[in-house]
From TrEMBL:
Short name of one Pfam family: Integrin_B_tail
Gene designation per UniProt: LOC127367762
Membrane disposition: Single-pass type I membrane protein
Span of the signal peptide: 1-20
The protein, known as: Integrin beta subunit tail domain-containing protein
Amino acid sequence: MAVKLLCLGLLLAQLGPSRAKQQTCLTSASNCDECMQSGPECAWCTAPHSNVRCHTLKGLQRAGCRKRYTYNSQGGVQVVRNDSSSEPVSPEAVFLQPQEFSLRLRPGVRQSFPLTITMPTGQHTAELAMDTTPVPAGVNVTFISSVNGNLLVVQVNVEAARCPSESDDSSQMQNRTGPWSVHITPRGFSQSVKLEITLECQCDCTRNREENSLGCSGRGALVCGQCECNKPYFGQQCQRDTDLFFSSNEDACRSGPNAPVCNGRGKCVEGFCECENRVNPTERYTGQFCECSNFDCPYHNDRICGGHGRCECGDCLCDDDWTGEDCSCSMETASCMANNQKLCNDRGMCQCGICVCEPPYTGPTCEDCPVCQGPCQQHAECVECRAFGTGAKKDRCDQECGYLIVTMVETKQDVPQTTAFCKMRSRDDSCVFYYTFSNLPSEGRSTVVRTKECRPN
């Protein structure tokens, strides 16, 4: 199979779509593998007894699954062999670098890596093509190239469309998910690059079974946060026995030895709770023991979860850009942006769209400070001692005001208008002097009117 590198996206094996279609994560997935295969954006929560297992990372976060419990492998690329050489082996040979890669592909997630090809002296690269060994079904490879003298830099993109299903013809594959070896060779040359490709169709956590886990009441294995119960036990923690299914014993419908049947919110039918209906049809009880509700959550502004989330088992699952126990806290920050394009002027924190300012700063964006000195007041004493040799700092001017460079002008009209114009009164003679001040990265500069304005005696 030959592919010319001047094409930006030629398909080496069009046996599946180049990009996985946008899919909704299978929230009803029974295990991590099924969840991860439902879409490239899908993640799995491994926290024990989580109410939400399969969702996007944001969805799991809103459901209360902490980051350390989320599993969302995106695959990866690793350089296996990268021998260096400044010249081709012979004037007629090419040199490829690196020489071998290992690729882990999650379906729908593209992996990219650069490949440098040093061409023989005097050989042009315009018509260079690539030969490849057969590519596995459903795996696509594309190239983007750029030429720099006798160097050809190629970005190689590799992507798998999906994981194989049971119905796929795998007669030509030793392993349905790899590893497979694919070689890329510049056409007309013998040197090649080896790709070792493996599909990630199984979650790593499935390999870490905790048999007879305490989280499963010692009656099953904990796998990716879920219990796989030994027979005849069942339930989220393998706490129930199937022998009670069809008995009249109501203990199977109690959350504990002395707990009310179905928490007093339903009736026990053949070992299962049937939760009672509410007067309001939008309100309902759920859970193995009717322990959850979709209406017993915090309210804000007379709306459950502030109108920015949904109630699940007594907790608010907030919409994107909202947080807080009652989803009343906006994560939007535009209202906290100061005129200098800094959040809360770098003088406070933006909380729920409102600036909480550090004293003495105030105002909606922490830009007000009634007691703060402006540049005129802050530098007046140094300007006076440097320009006139008077003022409070005249005896220590060199030590405290050495940072200031002063330029004297004759009249106020000679003062540059690019900076703030200051008017200050000297303590020594009650005369007024005029100046400007500007801060530079390593020093300050001031332009001062040479003559003070003094009141006549």
